[in-house]
Amino acid sequence: MKTTIEWLDPKINPPPFGQQFMALLGGQGSTDCLRTTTPYVKVANLVMRRDGPNCEDDSDYRDFLADERGAAAFDDYQFHLVDFDQYTYGDDSDCLDWYSDSIVAWAPMPDFSELLAETRAEAI
Question: Which residues lie closer than 8 Å to 88 by C-beta, 6 or more apart?
Answer without folding.
Answer: 20, 47
